[in-house]
Amino acid sequence: MAGRRIVEWFAGSYHSAMTLNGQIALVAGATRGAGRGIARALGEAGATVYCTGRSSRIGPVDSKRPETIEETAELVCSAGGLGIAARVDHTDERAVAQLIDRIRTDHGKLDILVNDIWGGDPLTEWGKPFWEIDVQQGFRMIENAIHTHIITSRHGVPLMLEGDGGLIVELTDGAFYGYRGQLFYDFCKMSVIRLAYAMSVELASHPVTAVAITPGFLRSEAVLDHFEVTEKNWRDAIAKDPHFAHSETPLLVGRAIAALASDPNAHRYAGQVLSSWELSRQYNIRDVDGRQPHWDEHLDAAIDRILENDSASPDDLSLLSIRMNQLDFDNSRKAQRSKIDEFLKKHNDSR
Predict the structure, then answer these.
(1) 3-state secondary structure at position 8
(2) CA–CA gap between residue 152 and residue 99 (Å, rounded)
(3) Would strands 208-214 and 273-275 be described as parallel, antiparallel, or unpaired?
(4) What share of the chain has pLDDT > 70, as a percent?
(5) Distance set, CA 62 to CA 53, 74, 83 (Å)
(6) Would you state the pLDDT for residue 214?
(7) What's 167's DSSP letter?
(8) Distance between CA atoms of 79 and 72, rounded to whole angstroms?
């Protein structure tokens, strides 16, 4: 694994004692959200980061969002790295191949590949069973969120193998194998976990590590807008949603990935689905405000509090139902799942 171990926390500022200087990274889907945070964090550690996406100052695609890849590249530079904006439609295989050829010509290697293209939020029909959803809309989600990842890895990995190897990261939502609430959403988020595993099997004899990583409750630009707050006053939204107190900025998952890319023993995680909260403790890294939010511990504590009560609100019952589905296939959580199931049967029967 290229790079070395990093990450210390001093006086409220992020400090890399040993960095990603000289490393070349590609963050596919770096316009906003987790992708932007990841690109910034890799720049923080000294990497050269290709920031790709379709929303650009020379031709924005998403009229509902103002962020551009050029802004992300500038943030990478401000953080201490070198950010390079490249407008690429990753559904276009020829365009992706041209991007990789450009990186090969300019740098001769690729050390870190992050597949974060998503674009599925406006396409997800929450609350509808699969027999009522728009199939063509779901297929567009699959093309955006899965096809792009496969195309980018297909062309990026050969360049990684020409060098010293490196790290492939598939961004997902949730470090579990249960249901995620909507058929196409679940299919896409589980598929990229499977991609990381399948790639790790085929890369077993090569110096490239493939993993899937999830952030927690992410304070993306869109989420902040939804709560009508900014990063400066985000705590004002806790009154609307108490779970928001345990949210994290996109930079935390980025710092987790930078730390993993710097770890010479990262291959021990090959094929696994990891989380920002696990990695932040593993590598002793923190969010911009010095916190180490742990989404899974918070959720378990919230579930336990509900189960201890004799009554439950509709929101409580909804959270329990979501959590019970998430725990499918998790043998270590059978007891918790059984408790939730019994509680739901009791309280739903009494309604």
Answers:
(1) strand
(2) 10
(3) parallel
(4) 94
(5) 11, 20, 22
(6) 98
(7) E
(8) 11
**Whole-angstrom distance, CA of residue 76 vs CA of residue 70:** 10
- Rama region for 101: left / alpha / beta (φ>0; ψ in -120 to 50; rest): alpha
Rounded (10°) angle between helices 295-308 and 334-349? 40
The chain-wide mean pLDDT, for the chain, equals 92
pLDDT recorded at residue 350: 56
For the chain, domains (ranges, CATH) are: 8-292 (3.40.50.720), 298-349 (no CATH)
pLDDT digits (tens, 9 = 90+) for 180-223: 999 999 999 999 999 999 999 999 999 999 999 999 999 999 99
- Phi, psi (rounded to 5 degrees) for 29: 95, 50
Interval 169-183 mean pLDDT? 96
Give how far Cα 81 sits from Cα of 22, 84, 96, 175, Å: 10, 10, 23, 30
C-alpha 54/C-alpha 163 separation (Å) is 28
* Sign of CA pseudo-dihedral 117, 63, 234, 327: negative
How many Å apart are CA 226 and CA 129, to the nearest integer?
25
Residue 115, SS3 per DSSP: strand
* DSSP of 68-83: -HHHHHHHHHHHTSEE
CB count in 10 Å sphere of residue 88: 25
Containing 48, the helix (H) or strand (E) segment is strand 48-53
| SS3 category, 199 | helix
Tell me the C-alpha distance between 61 and 341, whole Å: 45
Residue 24, classed as helix, strand or coil, is: strand
| CA–CA gap between residue 255 and residue 84 (Å, rounded) | 19
Confirm if 238 and 178 have CB atoms less than 8 A apart.
no
Instruction: Dump pLDDT digits (tens) for 265-310.
Output: 999 999 999 999 999 999 999 999 999 999 999 999 999 999 998 7
The H or E element spanning position 232 is none
